[in-house]
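BUG: 3D viewer hangs when loading the predicted structure for this chain

Environment: internal workstation, default settings.
Expected: structure renders.
Actual: progress bar stalls at 90%.

Input used:
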Amino acid sequence: MDSSAQKKIKVLITNAGSYLGATLADSLLLQNCEVFAQGNSPLLSPLLGKTYFTLLEFNIGQPLPSYLPNFDLVFHLDLLSKNQEQFLTGAHLSPQIRNIILGMKGKKVFVLAPLLTNSDFLDYLGHEEETKEPFKLFLIGDLYGPKMPLSPGAEIGPGQNVLAGLISQALTTDKIILPNEGLKMIYPAYITDVIFAINKLAFGQECKNVQAIVSEDPKTSLSVAYEIQNTASFVAGRQLDLFFSGSSPQRVDPEPIFKVHELDFLPKVKLAEGLKKTFEYYRESGKTHPQFILSEKTPSFRAEMKRILSEEKRPTAFRPWESIVEKKRFPQDIQEIPTSRLPKVNPKFLISKIPHANSRFRLKNICLLIFVILLLIFAKTTFDIYRGVTNFKNAQKALYSGDLKKTQDKAQKAQKAFGAAYNKSKILTAPIGLIFPKQIKSLNLSLSSASIGASSLVYFVQASQVLVHDFSIITSKDTNTSGLDLESPAADFRRSLFYSSYARSQAKQAENAIFLKPRIENLENSLEDFGSMTSSILELTNLVNDLTGAGSAKTYLVLLQNNNELRPGGGFIGNFGTIEFDQGKLKNITVEDIYTIDGQLKEKIQPPKQLAEKIGIDQLYLRDSNWSPDFTLNAATARDFFKKETGKSVDGVIAINLTFIQNLLEKLGPVKLEDFKNEEITAQNLFDRGQYWSEVGFFPGSTNKRDFFGALSRTLVAKILDGKNFSSWLTLIQVTKNALAEKDLMLTFDNPNLATFIATHGWNQPVPPADFNPTDDTTGTRDFLALSEANLGANKANHFLERKLAYEMTIGRDADLIAKLTITYTNNSQAETWPAGKYVNFLRVCVPFAADLYEFKNGDNSDLKSFEVTTSGSLTTFATYVEVPIKSTRQVSFAYRIPKNIKLEKTPYYHLYVQKQPGTGQDPFEFTFNLPAYLKVKSVNQDPKLSGSQNLTVKTDLATDREFEIEVAKK
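Structure tokens produced before the viewer hung:
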């Protein structure tokens, strides 16, 4: 492990594709930081090959992805801000900044925004010591300098940059057009001053909440235009004409309340000097066209940045990293060759060696030769594409069959083939690109995407090979853990994830190629699936040490729940098991009949009254302990029972529904149980064979059920842990991922890292979810629905049961909420004979707090007194018994008012969260939304396709939780 003195500072830069973002990223690499950038552009191309630079693809408008590392610093470039009102109070934070602050959990966050001078903002600056925002605000003036993009609309830095526009005009045209009669105020900010200031302030121990970053006091755009005229004449020998736009002069912006000499850093480059350096850069590089790429070919600017950054020592707050900076302050990934070492060649000598055309060598022969060459190149390109596609498909097949060596070989061949095709395609399609620019660009992007996708697969295989070896060490009986390496596969999985994201972004850009659109969509979908799988394995890799308890002993309680006999927590707990680790090694896996320990309970514990009424028990045991729809409560109860019944403590609880085992068998294939005469168990016969060995011929003291499920568990574990069959690991990860989403697998752990990770993903299944508070109507009017059923018929009737749900929300005249829930049960049991029979269901419906039930129907029963109402936290619960006889259908409905209305003027959103019950299947769910005549739907889940509707119906299922966010508007 690296010591703290050797650890690199991890930095995230959002919107890094801008001029400021790319330059800041380069400067942080010079500071020996590990830089992660969000937001791609050509400006970042020279950095992609750097060892400690990673380009990420995610939407900062959404919660941050879980696979991101823990950053030490975050720089958020607010490129589009037009005023600072959103920064004045926490209630007005932009969604991007809110997501970053929530995702960083107290780490240093710096927001880089434009320097504006409206009156509200000046007042805010004057009282900045009173602000208590969870970030520091750097206000950047008009940014300019060498390598800035000159194309109109190019992202320079935060805000709209007037100075950059004037310089672009001067370098690409023969005139300067001044807006607002030249009275617009400009706050010059030279790039090296800005980069130096950001580094100095960010790496310092303390800085103000609000920092202005400029190079000098403001000037009018007319004064700046005169400076640009003089510089263009002196440096480039060009005479620029000056014009004005606008019908009448507007007021001059007020001068800001800060002064340059009061800043917390010392700017060094005045406007005249900065313009001179900028114009000299473009004159020397010959770049006077749009879209200038950050280039290493003109090293003077980078050398200047090195010098400036090295002039001031890093503050003591970051002393642990200084030793690295001293040893290798400015690592170079590409070594430059001194021009003195290059041989000097006389151009006349080269010209004299060019053979002169023979008069007999006619033009048609030359054309024919060119045609043959192009034909050969075209044929080779086509062959390379065919070879790349074939090898890529074979690599995917080999991966999912578990042959990692073949996967790596085919992926490398695919990478080379696509790369070669891409290089030749650029040459061949250049002339056609003048006629069909979008299509040709899309073709080349698709080839580049495929090549990068193959690279992602290569890194994935490298990581997987090491990880399989690591798992073989963890699961072996040998106590020696030497050779365990989890850092290398984690690094390669991160690279694989980055390349798959980058390839997917290029594939999205290539969608304009109509003739290749189906293939590109297939490639994009494959890359998305592959990236999702990579992300899951990376998360697992990062948590292995915490899960196995490296350096300590860990024991986890496993509850095996039969959801054919549904309970609020998933299913009746018929078996339990333990998973034990010691010093990072798998020590033991056991499976037992739940009755073997329930019989050891000495303490008298009163059961819920419904269990006592319907089943007739007077004592609660572990097998009936999952009575709450909230798994966090069930897990705590189960631990308590396990401690009382066995005297043992555990470090976590894992609940597994029978559906998870069925899905695993369906993907892995049948298994044979040696202890049961090699009986073959499949996903289709698991229920029948499980019931046979559990119940048929049962007598007190029988171990059939324990032995059957124990043998099945051991056989499945052995098949998965077989180091030669990597496909089993992939299958397990995919099935586990689906089970977590569908609540057939639920987890809680004591380890803080594991607990935080599980809670962040919601896999501990609290009710309501941790990230959805039904009482918080800040961003929209929230509605909530969750069902909890308990089969109290002492049978497996849920195996034969069908369930359909319909939820209708009607918005009243005053934008109030009236809800109606209808549940239709169909019991397909053909006889009362066990395991089928009548479905005796204790039903609970969880709705928003203080909801008022005004109509209720349970078959023929409509008595409002036949159900009970309870409140807890943010929810109100309606509870009643529902009985569905065999070969019959029963319908239950609840109509109730929710004491809320939609705030049409402030937050015109209705947000419904429907939470699935663990153990249920893909129940059909129909959602109907009705509006009064004066309202209409504007969007559904941010999709405007249904805009203008007054009534809408959405048909889906409850395979997992569902959310509906509807924006409404007045007609």
